[in-house]
User: Which sequence fits this backbone?
């Protein structure tokens, strides 16, 4: 008997009818002789609706209370799915993150999983039950409810799969797998049958919303094989696993676009040792993750430091920089949320200068200006204006012949 962990996203459980359909899919897995643990997200747009409720109360809700509020969404989902399975005659139990024993760091709204206690789940499975677990949430050492950030149910599922030594972790979503680009932007985008942990991690970090980046980190660390599939059909999806050198066929595996990014610049900062440290220490104190960083050429005794952050962190980043600007006697702070980050990802990028030239050439041909660039062994990212984002993705996807027809030819 195999142990299967399945995760269903919000779109998969958006309505009572969809929940009933998911119950049948879960029972089909059980009928094949498997033990089943199911991780569920909040229904549809519930999380956004709860955030909007909070904003109607205050423009600056406490992060602890935000976690208290948002965690209720998953409780609704697990209870309803448990009811649906029970109505079909099967033994089932729903459990919150705290009841399961998912211990997290103390940071609210984007906590990290520290430990998973598998005893409760294993005990319920031994009694013949299907176990339904609330994704996206855990509890810290103070017994306060925490949440794992957008897409956190993915991480819950992978962490449980690791702790339970599951045979497979199936992530069900509204797409059929991982594609060379977002099919809504590039209609001929091609589904990848297999992708490496490293490539998937970069794609997830750069805007591909199929998996939360932390879930891929967790899977790589514990060697958990992930199968990304559609909850609306029975097709095979994309396997995320360790890939050997022989299997790395594509120089470029995919193109991603992150439209939930913002650029911040602290202007005319004194050009002296320790200033960059002060800038990024202030951001770290505000719990703001930074991505692309550029320090301009020295102008007299000052220069500018620019960086990108998640759009959701823009307010905190700007406030931190304004305070620092006053202390340093800098020239002020500028920001721009009307930007997007377009990236290419591939195991074959390292040591291949032609790839960057082709990408930049494709953007230049379309008259698209690049504002910032960052690179690694397996990715190249360009920051550009939001209005040009879709056109940029299409141009880059085409220049590397990633489409279905282009690949077939």
Assistant:
């Amino acid at each position: 008997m195999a142990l299967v962990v399945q995760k269903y996203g919000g779109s998969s459980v958006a309505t009572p009818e969809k929940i009933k359909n998911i119950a049948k899919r879960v029972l089909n897995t059980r009928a094949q002789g498997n033990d089943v643990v199911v991780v569920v997200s909040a229904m549809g747009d519930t999380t956004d609706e709860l955030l909007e409720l909070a904003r109607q109360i205050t423009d600056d809700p406490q992060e602890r209370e935000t976690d208290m509020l948002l965690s209720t969404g998953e409780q609704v989902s697990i209870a309803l799915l448990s009811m649906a399975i029970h109505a079909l005659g099967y033994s089932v139990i729903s459990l919150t993150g705290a009841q399961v024993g998912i211990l997290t760091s103390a940071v609210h709204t984007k906590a990290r999983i520290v430990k998973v206690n598998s005893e409760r789940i294993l005990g319920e499975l031994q009694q013949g039950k299907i176990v339904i677990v609330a994704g996206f949430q855990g509890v810290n050492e103070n017994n306060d409810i925490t949440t794992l950030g957008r897409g956190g149910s993915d991480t819950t599922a992978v962490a449980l799969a690791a702790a339970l030594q599951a045979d497979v972790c199936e992530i069900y979503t509204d797409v059929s797998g991982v594609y060379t680009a977002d099919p809504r932007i590039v209609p001929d985008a091609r589904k990848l049958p297999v992708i490496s942990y490293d490539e998937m991690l970069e794609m997830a970090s750069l805007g591909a919303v199929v998996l939360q980046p932390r879930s891929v980190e967790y899977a790589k660390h514990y060697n958990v094989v992930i199968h990304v599939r559609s909850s609306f059909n029975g097709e095979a999806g994309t396997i995320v696993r360790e890939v050997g050198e022989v299997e790395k066929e594509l120089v470029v595996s995919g193109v991603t676009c992150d439209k939930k990014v913002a650029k911040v610049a602290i202007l005319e900062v004194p050009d002296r040792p320790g200033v960059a440290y002060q800038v990024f220490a202030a951001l770290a104190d505000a719990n703001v993750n930074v991505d692309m960083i550029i320090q301009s050429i020295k102008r007299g005794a000052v220069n500018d430091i620019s960086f990108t952050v998640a759009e959701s962190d823009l307010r905190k980043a700007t406030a931190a920089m304004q305070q620092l600007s006053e202390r340093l006697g800098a020239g002020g702070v500028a920001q721009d949320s009307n930007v997007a980050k377009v990236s290419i990802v591939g195991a074959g990028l390292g040591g291949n200068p032609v790839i960057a030239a082709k990408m930049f050439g494709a953007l230049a041909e379309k008259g698209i200006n690049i504002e910032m660039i960052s690179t690694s062994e397996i990715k190249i990212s360009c920051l550009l204006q939001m209005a040009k984002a879709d056109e940029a993705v299409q141009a880059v996807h085409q220049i590397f012949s990633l489409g279905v027809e282009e690949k077939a030819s």
